Amino acid sequence: MSLLLAVEIKETTAYKVVGHCAVNWIKAAHWVYCLQRNKWLAVLASAHNKAFLCDPYTGETLASAQCEERCILYSAAFYGRELDNLVVASGTVFNHVLLWRPCWSEINDSLVEKRMQAHEGVVFSVAFNRDGSELVSASDDRTLRVWDLSKNSDEDDCLVATLYGHQARVWSGIALKEYIVSASEDGSCRVWARDGKNCGFSAKDSWKQCKKNVWTMAVNDSEELVVSGAADGSICVWSIGSIAGKHLQTTSSLDSIIDLPAQADYLPHSVAAARKSEHIRNFALYSCSGTDPGIITVMDSGCVLQKLPKGDWKMLCFLPGFAGYSMLASTLSGDLIAVGMRDGSVALFFCTSASALSEPLLKKLHKASIQHLTVVPVKGLDFKNDEIQQNTVFDLVTSDSDRMVVWSRIKQVGAVFQWHVMASLGLPGRTRLATAAVDSMLGWMVIGSQNGGIYIFDLPENLCNLSARSQLDKFALATKDAPVLDMAVCFGLAHSDTDITSIILYESSQKRLDSLTTNQHKWLKQSSIVTSGRDGIVQRFEIVVSVQAKTTMIVESSLHMRKGQLANSPLTDSFAEIFIERRTTERVTAGSIGGLYRIAEQVYAVTFYRNRMVIKDASSQMELFSVAFAERNRRWRVHYVDGCNSLYLGFINKLQVSTCPIDLRSHLSNFRLAPGVSSLDIRGISAIQVVGANDRHIVALGGEDCVLRICELDESLEKPVKCLAQARRHSSAIRCVLCVSGFGNEFDLSDQESSRYILTAGASCELRCWRLCIGQQVTLLEWAVAPALSHDSESRIMDLAIVDVNHGQQTILVAAAYSDASICLWRLDLAKNEFVSVARDSSYAHGCCVLSLSVAKIAAGTANSNASDVSVTTTLFSGATDGRIFIWDLSQFVNDSRHRGHCCPYGYLKTIDDTSNSREIGGILQPVTVIDNVHQSGVNTIDTWVLQGTQIAIASGGDDNNLSYFTLDCADLLSQSKDFDCDIQRYENAHASSVQQLKFIDGCRLCSVGTDQRIAIWAVNGSCGIEMTFMECTQVADPSAMTLLLARCTSDSSANNKIDSVDVLVAGIGIESFKVKL
């Protein structure tokens, strides 16, 4: 049965809703005007190819019309606003598209006027264009078909085009005046443009929205905006206007293609006669009046040509040193252009006016050929000399083939340009510079190498402070007389032994983590570094200076942090340290990144993949522009025109220069109206409490899309689900997500920054640790990865449980349940960023897939009086697919780890790492006892609660739909044989299908969720059994994970606080939260 709701707006504050029920699925609804009744009516199409005429005000069915083709429909659409001209299009399960007009009669069937057959799968969607002359159908065969309805002939002539491009089923299609837009199971919307000449269509754009399933679309009346809704709950708005000129097949398709003059027109006669050919060696775009940039080219002959936007080419100069070799760099706005020569000289060209470049200013900086140049403007300086203006001071970093790096500064005073060598830099070993960034206002220089390393230099205060003109004049012009700067800290292999292509250096927006207690180094500011590489990854780092060892972070160099000492600053505090910490890592492309550009606080990336150049917003990864262009050419430039918020791309091809403008505002019309969470199943969820923020939750989510997400849930916000950070490192589905509560499971937002650790595991036996930092910015870093225990790709980790947390030694013991019937105990060393296998169940005691784990810990000295050396009794409970629960004593492992800093092995097993070399791992796990027949089938979930003394409460849920509850005395348990017997209380058919998750609220109440989409609260008592006290249905399909958040206590006259309400968060295909009063 389906329900249609009609809404009548009578006044701004009054409305009326009338429901209409149909006996089967409603496939389409449409408004029509009835002249006889002089009112608007609703017409519905049902899944049995039948139309119903309804009064929306009363809900009464006035008439019906049955199509003669009595088949099941997957889709339907109406055209026409008057009842007498109504046309119905039906998409059938037999791959047909039918066109028929309703005959409102209970006796006669309506005849099919047109039957269109071309699809090779069921038809999921049909849609008319605005004038009803065209129909678009979407199908299971991954195609769209466009039909011309103006033709009277049959289906062969009606089919106009078949559109391919989606990688999965196509759910929906709409026909616009100039475009066809489709939505697909592959998580994208695609756009095809009409070709007026050939009556065909060409692919124009692809809008990626989610991992899987964009279900539906709608378009506004002006056909300027398309809105799409996806399975992850997201709603996106796409601008049709942003499509034009966005994707080009070749650079020859660019609007502005400029040919260079013949070489005889600019070359000296003697040079022209000696040269057989000429080509562009290098080029740049520079600022001019207006929006279009000027062009400067360095020719292979040594000539430098200049062209204004509306002028002709003219020769700027002829330098024989440019012949056959030139390396070029410029500022993003083109104010200064630097060209390096083979003999180590550098020529500078200044944009002196709105239409002219200066004569070159030459200086020999190196003894070997120039291999790299970086030019950046020095902004924000407070000069006492009024002649010096902002953007007239530049820093230049150059390197040569002998790996020498020189930092020099250029300033303009009136019409005079001054060029001073500031320092040379010492790089270790065979390091070759690939890119650089320098900022005198922050006090840092960052070098990126060709082998993926990042080298940071602190700049002395006397080189940074330019408030007095005399401080520049004291530096000699000779490079040999310049001071040598030493490296402060290095972050090697930051981009996995690939070239670092770009570095952005700017002042950090975060508050400082440490107070600098001396004024001697106040010019050094906490800064952010953004890097890109040939590996297609963008990373963000933080630089922090501290005069004492940091207490909020691991001070030793680790996987994501390096530390060193200030090397060039005249400090009396010799122990002042510098830290560089990697905060975020995000893959932007499967190919390589050519460069990053930071404009108005936004970072844009130039990427190359499969011989295509794409300009992307690095944060949202929305495409701004793409063109077929091979990266190996490397003959491209990016120029920013301030004021009009536009980028210009420039390309060269032999004797041609092409330019293309990109409006940075155009992509802003494409935005995410509502955020999504995950379009695939969420399998693991763990909550992080937020101190002092009621009804605000932070959760970690993982699922079938292999992505770990950190989300904030706050119903008071406009967007109640906000993704704070996400990362994908798992190669397959994530099944378990666990926040390490031993380090404090609560974030105190009053802190400047707070960090916690998260464990994830799942398919392919992958086990990973993540470090989550929440401050003004949220960062998520992969902290450690467990080695592989086997090469069986089918094996997977089913559940995780925290066994012990050692604050002093920065270690965590974690138990993992495997699908191959084994259990492994891992020791995570946070300081060393590594997992070590402590023990494993080598006997595979369960004999079948282990599904669930839970740990219970008893305070020191109460569990076993005969073992005085055991300070803590730690018991592990495991459930498997055979319905049994095994109990394991982990006390020895926990106490050895706490007291000796390591776990004593009882024997050795072998594990296999990625190099196929066997390695020794820890001891052997053996179960203490087993409890049979807890469930008739799989034990999906276990939870434990420590009662008074040594009593432990155990609750479990299984595939048999039952809940089980029993209590054990830990002291008696460890002294019994393996045939331990206990009194199990069961609640049969607690859920209508399998119980997926179960959690204790306190010692006498627990919460469960099942695949029947029900949440239940149960009261448990050793003598009275199990009783349901609350039940609610969830809208989350296939719920598989649950966590409890913010248990609220009400203080009474007694000493104890009683929990009177709890927030429950359920995850599956989507997430939903409930506030439950107990």
TrEMBL record:
Q: What is the protein's name according to its record?
A: WD repeat-containing protein 6
Spell out the SMART domains in the cross-references.
Answer: WD40
**Record bears the keyword Signal:** no
First-listed, main subcellular location of the protein, grouped into a coarse class: cytoplasm
Family stated for the protein in its record:
Belongs to the WD repeat WDR6 family.
Tell me the Gene Ontology biological-process terms attached to this UniProt entry. tRNA methylation
Note whether Repeat occurs among the keywords. Answer: yes
Database matches in InterPro entries: tRNA_Anticodon_Mtase-Reg (IPR051973), WD40/YVTN_repeat-like_dom_sf (IPR015943), WD40_PAC1 (IPR020472), WD40_repeat_CS (IPR019775), WD40_repeat_dom_sf (IPR036322), WD40_rpt (IPR001680)
Question: Do you know which SUPFAM superfamilies this protein is assigned to?
Answer: WD40 repeat-like
Q: Whose protein is this, by species? A: Coemansia asiatica
**Spans of repeat WD:** 116-157, 214-240
